[in-house]
Q: What sequence folds into this?
């Protein structure tokens, strides 16, 4: 599944704090336009009918969390429905985590302890967490930042960490996605426009995603294409997950 290249990460070492903050703000807007939080919450909602009602925490690992805007949305949704969703949000960049902590405090207040932010490289998660450490594992707009050789490895790691289910959202390379990228970043600084174009060029075709699913051989994962948003979601819950 060769792709053109991997894009420059918004938290690369040579990115200034000002550029990083602007990029994370833009990424939050892009997540809204792509429906990234909605994709996570829609799947959690469909699975939540089987969740325990005795106050048992539901745990979720959010990989490459950025400013933790999606964990904030998921935590808020769960709290409104009486669920205690505990989220571990990881990112490999300390400056990004500092901005994420500020965003979480602003959105949820100092008294909410449901989101834990931790510095970690997604490629080394098995060194930090035991297999099936979390009920669910989520990642949004992360896979396309990896070299091709690391994509399957990252997905296998996330599958091993997920006791019950997984939700992955990423960009689908198409003319619509390229058009959306220009629209989403119309008034953004030039470096954000460059980052977004680079991300689209590094994203996945339908053939890429089908090849990934074939190689992984995980029968409980399903792909949902969102052509007008320019993205796809790879998600599923293990059969009988809450009988484990």
A:
């Amino acid at each position: 599944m060769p792709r053109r290249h991997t894009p420059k990460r918004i938290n690369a070492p040579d990115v200034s704090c000002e550029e990083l903050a602007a990029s994370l703000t833009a990424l939050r807007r892009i997540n809204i336009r792509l429906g990234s939080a909605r994709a996570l919450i829609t799947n959690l909602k469909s699975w939540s009918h089987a969740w325990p009602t005795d106050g048992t925490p539901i745990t979720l690992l959010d990989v490459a969390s950025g400013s933790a805007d999606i964990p904030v949305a998921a935590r808020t949704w769960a709290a409104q429905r009486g669920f205690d969703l505990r989220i571990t949000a990881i990112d490999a960049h300390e400056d990004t985590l500092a901005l994420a902590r500020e965003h979480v405090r602003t959105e949820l207040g100092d008294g909410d302890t449901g989101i834990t932010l931790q510095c970690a490289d997604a490629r080394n998660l098995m060194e930090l967490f035991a297999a099936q450490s979390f009920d669910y594992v989520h990642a949004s707009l992360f896979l396309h930042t990896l070299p091709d050789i690391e994509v399957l490895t990252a997905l296998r790691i996330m599958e091993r960490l997920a006791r019950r289910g997984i939700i992955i959202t990423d960009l689908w390379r198409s003319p619509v996605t390229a058009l959306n990228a220009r629209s989403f970043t119309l008034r953004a600084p030039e470096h954000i426009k460059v980052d977004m174009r680079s991300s689209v060029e590094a994203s996945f075709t339908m053939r890429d995603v089908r090849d990934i699913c074939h190689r992984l051989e995980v029968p409980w994962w399903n792909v949902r294409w969102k052509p007008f948003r320019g993205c796809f979601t790879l998600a599923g819950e293990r059969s009988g997950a809450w009988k484990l």
DSSP finds nine helices and seven strands in the chain. The chain has a mean pLDDT of 90. The chain has one domain: 17-243. The first strand starts at residue 58 and ends at 63.
